[in-house]
Amino acid sequence: xxxxxxxxxxxxxxxxxxxVDVEGRVLAQVRGPGASPQNVGLARxxxxxxxxxxxxxxxxxxxxxxxxxxxxxxxxxxxxLPKEEEDLRAAIELRGWSETSVVGNxxxxxxxxxxxDGIGVAVVCGAGINCVAVARDGRTHRFPALGRISGxxxxxxxxxxxxxxxxxxxxxxRGAPTALLPALIDHYGTRTIAEAVERLHFEQVEFxxxxxxxxxxxxxxxxxxxxHGVVDRLVEEVTLLASVSLQRLGLLDEQVDVVLGGGVxxxxxxxxxxxxxxxxxxxxxLAQVRVVDVPxxxxxxxxxxxxxxxxxxxxxxxxxAYEPLEVAAGG
Length: 331
Known about the structure:
Number of helices: 13
CATH class of the largest domain: Alpha Beta
Shape: globular
Order of helices and strands: EEEHHEHEHEEEHHHHHEHHEHH
Strand content: 15-25%
Strand order of the largest sheet: 3-2-1-4-5
Radius of gyration: 21 Å
CATH topology of the largest domain: Nucleotidyltransferase, domain 5
CATH superfamily of the largest domain: ATPase, nucleotide binding domain
Number of strands: 10
CATH architecture of the largest domain: 2-Layer Sandwich
Largest sheet: 5 strands, mixed
């Protein structure tokens, strides 16, 4: 059998799977719904991964009795603690997709997608927020990334919830005036934000904080001080995640890549990315801040190719098979 990698990038909102041969040729690509075990449970996660893995095998022309790959490289949201990684790896190995398997947090795939060697720091801010750092000697630094119980601040859901919280307090007098108030009233199509809250409480309207996150950035772009304060807080958090990781690994004075990814960071026209770059320049002047320009599933596949000892030409072939992502201004 030609050596193949089954690469899985399992996010909160979507799952991407690629089947790649050891030369870096993409044999199949499929996408499906988000399947973080923290959100949908381990059993449902494995159902999604199984369906996508088998779909990739069919797309590549493999027969039902063929092993899909030599190695599975699964980098998943929700694989935040060693026990979670081990439970997922054991469950995936029972599926029999490949001879060997590795399961890690999806931030490792982001780091590999944004670098030539998987060395440096990666911060992702999409539905949630997370960070990982890898030193050249193999040392790593991670955060639990379990939400507020593990000290996290940020992510699309968190920021969207902040937008509603600030609008409510602006209306009832507990908070400062902000253009978030009329923006959210317009969003919900109500006369007051109190009316919107009542509808949310009685589940007459679905509360999806993710859709409020871009709205907050739009209001901040008009110069609204309250909304801009949230953006500044996000910039501070991303900078903290990266700088603390570099400090813990003794890399503040080293030339190192800081990779940023996730829709909240990359979809704001450089507002967050450029500010993070400016702040990190004072803390770690040799660091190179860059925005990932290929999908994270490419990083998962590259980590799989690394595990198989693929030639450098395989990385180039794989990267060129994907259209570059649109990155934030200044990236």
